[in-house]
Amino acid sequence: MKRYALRIAGESVDPSGGTWFDTQNPFTGQAWAQIPRADARDVDRAVQAAHRAFTEGAWAEMSASQRGLLLHRLADLVERDASRLAATEVRDNGKLLAEMSAQLAYIPQWYRYYGGLADKVQGTTLPLDKKGYFAFTRKEPLGVVAAITPWNSPLMLASWKIAPALAAGCTVVVKPSEFTSASTLEFAELFDEAGFPPGVINVVTGFGREVGSPLVEHPLVRKISFTGSDTTGRMINEQAARHFKHTAMELGGKSPNIVFADADLEQAAFGAISGIFAATGQTCIAGSRLLVQDSIYDDFVERLLAVARTARMGDPMDPATQVGPVTTPPQFEKVLDYIDVAKREGATLLLGGERGSGAACGQGWFVQPTIFGDVRNDMRIAQEEVFGPVLSVLRFKDEAEALSIANDVRFGLAAAVWTRDIGRALRMSERLQAGTVWVNTYRAVSYLAPFGGYKDSGLGRENGIDAIQEYLQVKSVWINSGAVSGNPFVIR
Ligand code: NAD
Prior knowledge:
It is built from 15 helices and 22 strands.
């Protein structure tokens, strides 16, 4: 079995405790590799390495333009190794090869975009109200960043943090999820090949309490950029607040996908299905609440079922597969539990509702694509994040009711509206409480478009031109041009 090592200061190193844990292939249910079980000692080694790289040596002295060039070189290496990294992710995570190939083809853009942005960060001169002084601002990198990522899209979500952080001049310690660490460990090796000085990127693997928590607590870490559940995010945010650390929180969602009677219903049905069943529903932006206007409810549900019934479950490596396994055993149990909850709450099971079985599913952790109708917004299945292939369909009468149902949830990550009425599209996009609103599409993301949550879906924004500011702090510099007296008893 393959045995991975930690990446600290540009080297592959064993964990201090000398222990590893198995990582499993969600399609076969079998262990396929061993991941280092790091602890606080490894966290300290990694953070010290990142701190050294930040304060002294080549990285600290490098110009922003040179940092940008390194990011471009990295993008080329990701492109070169895309199929190898995609295969690792499919094996470890159960994501479809088709999805991973598309992701890996896109990830280099994050490094090119922020590589180009690195030398466009500027301070300003200040039009001071005091004579005899000249003052300006500098935008300075925060320091060591802890990037903590979830299991559903490890390389993509790590890149959303690493690219702007490095462009800003920070150094990074990445802590991937214990369920899907392999791709991040392989990915980190490319930074050395690209020519990043040792310590600029480090990866520590293991469990939340043993690795994540000491990383958050480490005094030399200045920012925690976290993507994961709101439960963990809340804990980390409290911990970070005690030390006045900067945080960015990309958390969960329960996103409404709203279909009006005037929409292109065929496209809306495709959008609803891809919104919930892509990546087996294991995405923060899953359109898990489908709101359908009363007058088309029955017709639309029929369309939906017709498309959903054609979904092929199977080996994620097989290009013909459309729905892969759930990534982890606890998540598999959680999804099945929620299906029971929905049944008990009185939602009508329209499709699926069982674990996936049969030859195509192997020994994998499959859940059938599941659709519940007649869901009320006060049911748990309409309010809580399932993070699996389970869709709740709700009815609404008019725009006002659609808005009230859509916003009546503690999350606010994304929302979509399907309509041919441009006025309605504008009204809805203004009033929906979500960090991203799509009109007549679903699941579109880009390095150019700010992404983040309203309400319990988080704090801060990733992607887009401003995301680099999340890794910078402003310093004001005052210069006495000689005209100002130093006499402490002369008050000006
Ligand atoms: P999780 O919160 O269980 O774990 C996320 C990471 O935090 C893992 O690396 C984990 O080891 C680490 N962790 C756990 N306890 C910790 C602690 N005490 N201190 C520090 N680190 C700790 O989340 P998950 O189950 O891996 O991911 C699924 C969740 O992520 C879902 O809620 C999903 O919506 C969310 N998510 C959000 C976005 C977004 O951009 N908003 C994107 C993807 C996933």
